[in-house]
């Protein structure tokens, strides 16, 4: 049991280093939440972490698109300064 935990930690460290350098917004938060949920739902932490990463990335991307659309709409709705002659 101790060897399994040690090997899991040894495999997780490089993954966190690689994930930190990647630009996958939301993946780390989702992976942590999914890993914890998967662990408590029958010791499926890795499957939960993968699923959480996918869902977290999707939600972060969706949120970023909504923010971009809201900013574009706000710019369009601003009154344009009229030139006075």
Automatic annotation (TrEMBL):
Organism of origin: Paraburkholderia ginsengisoli
Lineage top rank: taxon: Bacteria
Positions of region (Disordered): 66-85
Entry keyword set: Plasmid, Signal
Leader sequence segment: 1-24
Entry protein name: Glycine zipper 2TM domain-containing protein
Highest classification ranks of the organism: Bacteria, Pseudomonadati, Pseudomonadota, Betaproteobacteria, Burkholderiales
